[in-house]
Design a protein that fits this description.
Layout lengths: L1 E3 L12 H9 L2 E5 L4 E4 L3 E13 L9 E5 L4 E2 L1 H5 L9 E15 H10 L1 H23 L6 H16 E4 L2 E4 L5 H8 L3 H13 L3 E4 L2 E4 L2 H9 L23
Antiparallel strand pairs: 1-8, 2-7, 3-7, 4-5, 4-6, 4-7, 8-9, 9-11, 10-11
Helix pairs in contact: 3-4, 5-8
Protein name: CRP-like cAMP-binding protein
GO molecular function, one term: DNA-binding transcription factor activity
Pfam family, one: HTH_Crp_2
Length: 248
Amino acid sequence: MTLWRRKDTDFFAGGSASARSAFQAQAQRLVFRGREPVASDGAQVFLLEQGRIKLRRLLTDGTTPVYGFCLPGDIFGAIGAAQQADDDRQAILGTAVGTCQVSAVPREVFLALLESVPRLRQNAAALMGERLRQATELASVARMARADVRLAVTLLVCARQCGRTVEDGVLLDFPMTRQDFSDMTGVGWHRLTRVFQQFESQGWIRVYQRRLLMIDPVALAQLAGQAQAEIALGSGMALSWPVPWSVQ
């Protein structure tokens, strides 16, 4: 089995052992249990050492939809730490999936480390860029009219971030509730349930034990491909599904 992700997420990849040691020497060790909230106000930057975290964003209507996923080696809270004014820093919300071990360092320590180690600065920029892309991709879902297209695109985006290839397809290896998907797609729970049932009856997905298996991701990509005009982003970049899901 292989983890299906576009990029490595190790913040220290290519860096020196001394840089990791310097980070760890000043880090506070934190443990979060399953479903426990994880939050950063930009005063600290977190490195996920073990476990998995669902990242959330607070919307004006009070909902906190999932917009990204953290795996070991990921940092989070870095975008808030990079903002100069305290009032401008964005709070990062998350939910622990199982037991998570996190190393947290003060904002000043993190920024000093980036200043002294160029490779870590590059890694941090890549990770933050990927995180922003995740949020942009999922935010674009709200522009789509059809509920089935919204769900198909959301499943593909999630799978690109945290999918794991297994014998029968691609497994979203994060426990996700239908309320999570409802918040992410902007589709009401009852309507979304009907779309899930439609996808299951067509043999595209299977849901069990709060895990979702994408049996036919190509069919989902074909459905999502019908909405390419809708999901073109303001920058001119359109969402695309990498191999093996690209539909020409």
